Structures are given as C-alpha cells and as structure tokens.
Amino acid sequence: MRKNQEGETLKQRSVKRVAAIHDLSGFGRSSLAVVVPIISTMGIQVCSVPTAVLSTHTGGFEEYSFVDLTDNMTHMFDHWEKLNLDFNCIYSGFLGSPRQVDIISDFIDKFAIRNGYTDTLVVVDPVMADEGELYSTMDQEMVKRMRDLVGKADIITPNFTEAAYLLDKPYDTDLDKDTLKEWLYELSQMGPEKVIITSAPTWETPEKTSVVAYNQEDERYWKVTCDYIPAQYPGTGDAFASVIVGSLLQGDNLPISLDRGVQFITAAIRASYGETLPKREGVLLEKVLDNLKMPVLVSSYELL
Ligand code: PXL
C-alpha cells in the first residue's frame, strides 16, 4: 500500500481528506462556499482547488465577474504531486473551461489510489444545467467533455436536466418509473458504479420531486421523495452532493447517504422558506449546519 510523506495510509488517517474542485463564487451560497462548510462540519478536511472565481454564482445574477483558473489548477496539482499528497476522495463540480476536464482526468490518474480496500473515492457532480437549461457559462463542448469526466468517476450526482444532457435525451419530466431506471442504468454504463439523479420527477406525486439512485455493485435502485423543489434555490445541488461525499466517507451506505442529503436540504429549505429572502441568495445553510452532526433518525428511502 502506498504511504504518503507522513507515513500514513488512506485508511489510517484520523481525519479524512477531500480534494474539492469547484468554483469560488463570492456571494450566493453555491460551490466552494457550501462544499467547504458542509464537508468540514462532517469532520473531513477539504483541500480546495478553485476552477474559477466569480463575484456571484450565475443563477439569478447578471453582470457577474468571472476569472478562469484553468492554468492555476495545473500549478496546484504539480505542487501537490511534489508534496506526495493523497486524498480519500476527489470531488469535482462546476468547471471554468472544457480544458479543465483533461487536467482533472490527469489528476485522478495520478492521485486516485486504487488498491481495492481503501480506494480514493472519485465523485463527479457534472454541474452544467438545471430546469431544462444549460447555465450561462456552459455550452455543448462542456457537455461533451463532461461525459468524458463522468467516465472516470465512481459516483456521479447529476440533476435531472444534467442527466438528460449527459444521455443526449430530451428533457421530459413526464417520464415513467421504468424509463427513469433505464436512465440510471445507462449513466452507470458510462463508467460510474453509483449514479444519483436529483430533482427527478415523481409519477405518483407530481407536486413533489425525488432523488433516485442505482448501485451497479448490488444492482439495486433507490428512491427518496422530497417535499420541496430544490432547483428554485441555487447551490442546493452542491450542498446535496457534499453531504453525500461526507456521509459515504463516514462509512454510510448509499441509501442512508441519500436520506442524509435529502433531510439536510429539506431542513435548509425550510429554514429559508420561513423568511422573505431572495431565492438567488441560496438556502440559510448557517442555520442548519449543525444538523450534519446527527445520524439519520427517521429513514425514508425505498427501493425503486
Ligand atoms: O450550484 C451550481 C453552480 C455552481 N457554480 C456556479 C453556478 C452554479 C449554478 O448556477 O452559477 C458559478
């Protein structure tokens, strides 16, 4: 087993370590502004790799500033390689340019330790779109390249729109349960062992939304129903995926981690909905972060 400079292995490390590759948006509670507090609160070290720096996220703000950090990412990874760092998890989200896919793929090839027992978990959240539309900085080239990155992941967490883009299928919220299961399966055939789709339509209760998942390992499909539509609050996808990362690294299984993610987002939306804040500011994360210290008390996952 490869040992790092401190002589520890991934398994022995008392505080696990995640390389978090996302943008830093100054205002609006998305990306690193939610990834860092959530994963840290769950007792895991976050090592940030900013893909871009923006004044705000792009959901509901105009004339935002945007600095692409593609070249800086290479410098950061080169330095980390010299330091012989290793990570329990590599977790990517919003990218600043399609070329970042090559840089991250290379980083995964060099840094993801694969020895069958304490593997580095590679999580790709293919942040590109929501509610049927690409975000303003995204284009078809990014969609194409994101398919390549998904192929390197153990777990992916697209929302329903991103799943449609990855599969090149029309965005149709009227689809039935069997078609949704086919989508999950087809995404897993692109490489990842576990596929989680958020903001998925629910056929029995159209006013609700759901998180659905497939695990290639045991060939089981899962579903957790949500009361609120998270897409209206930017950054909830980043928050959800971050809870999944923290939960899996803490040793939870897939359906329990789905429960924890949904329960956290539901609490965050409830904390925000009770006030009259603009939705573009995101959910009041600060009020509910401590919920992450608790295990799941009432579980609601079901087989799909
Ligand atoms: O929450 C996803 C996200 C991440 N980063 C930036 C965004 C968005 C969604 O709008 O604009 C910059």
TrEMBL record:
GO terms for molecular function: ATP binding; pyridoxal kinase activity. GO terms for cellular component: cytosol. One of its GO terms (biological process) is pyridoxal 5'-phosphate salvage. InterPro entries: PM/HMP-P_kinase-1, PyrdxlKinase, Ribokinase-like. It comes from the Bacteria. Its EC number is 2.7.1.35. Keywords: ATP-binding, Kinase, Nucleotide-binding, Transferase. Residues 39-272 form the Pyridoxamine kinase/Phosphomethylpyrimidine kinase domain. This is pyridoxal kinase. It comes from Natranaerobius trueperi.
